[in-house]
Amino acid sequence: MASKKPSNILEKEYNMKIGVVKEPSFENRVAITPDVVDPLKKIGFTVAIESSAGDRAFYSDKDYSDVGASLESRDSILSNSDIIVSIHSIDQESAKKIGKDKIYIATLTPLAFPQKIKEVGTIGFKVFSMDTIPRITRAQSMDVLSSQATVSGYKAVLLSATHYSRFFPMLTTAAGTITPARVLILGAGVAGLQAIATAKRLGAVVDVFDTRPEVKEQCTSLGAKFVEVEGAADATSSGGYAVEQSEDYKRRQKEAIAKFAEKADIIITTALIPGKKAPVLITKEMVDSMRQGSVIVDLAAVNGGNCELTENDKTVIYKGITIIGNSNLPSTQPMDASKMYAKNIVNFLKLFVNKEKQFHLNMEDEIIDACLVAAEGTIRHKPTLALLGN
After folding, report:
1. Alpha-carbon distance 210 to 51, whole Å?
2. In this predicted model, which residue has the larger pLDDT, 14 or 101?
3. Is 135 annotated in the active site?
4. pLDDT band for position 259 (cuts 50, 70, 90)
5. DSSP 338-376
6. Which of 21, 42, 282, 294 could cross-link to 290 by cystine, CB 3.0-4.6 Å?
7. Which of 131, 143, 207, 210 is catalytic?
8. What are the helix (H) ranges across 164-228?
């Protein structure tokens, strides 16, 4: 007699259909790019994409059809796909068209937008949020936060350079010597490290601050000066994010940052604490001390910003200083940002396939378990439930 399969494992025969929907008007990226259609087919999936979904990322409908993806209407994809994939959350009307036995995968940022999880998660289908992937070695190839932060860090420097009133590198000219720009980067995660590398390539002098002393070597290897403030709370278990600090540390931190902010021409801030308002690291007084023509790019704008004067999705001119609040810079680099996101999705979907090439959703896998934020109409992501008051 055959043994009964565990109830937390779902197996199906192939072929399963992945449907890709068009993103909202503010987003230029697309969740699946033509170059990953063949890898998906090789592990047993077919791909359907909403017509014109890739246009803003410069991937045409023909690019998709040439590699074997089918072009369909939004309603057809939502109703007939086994797995629906996007970057941002779909609207509630679209969500209601997805069958309860289906799967939806996106980057839903549940700690920032718990209400959206409630809207899509209580309908009945399985909801996976890519930004809840645990930051463990096995999951690195699926980590959309890291891949998109790479884009943000790079583009933040370029954006600051276009708004800055002077050159980045030191120049020796017939008219005299131009001194290099000083760049202060707050946070040495993936975005911060990419910002360091990009600013150094442009010839700037770079100072970087982070509460985690273990990242000092990475920063100095890229050519930056690491600003140390002793006594930070241990952040080794925070998955690469900042953690709450003591009041005494915050005071000393503020004093140290103020000294460097006064000399900085460019400040790029990246500090986020999951589920909480971004820590204010650049106060109004610090901005007042900066010289006119300087630039602040705040990548934590969606969570309130690391600069006291940041306004999300806006560029503010304050006393001659440009303050850019933009948490969606990957959308401004859509081709490569989409390509990296799509590869993250492919690597994640490989977890759904067993050695016999069957669809095999194993809830004992820690990555799958962490990413499944809702199922059968119930929200199962505990931090989201706490934010919703449950």
Report:
1. 44
2. 101
3. yes
4. very high
5. HHHHHHHHHHHHGGGB-TTS-EEEETTSHHHHHHEEEET
6. 294
7. 143
8. 190-201, 216-221
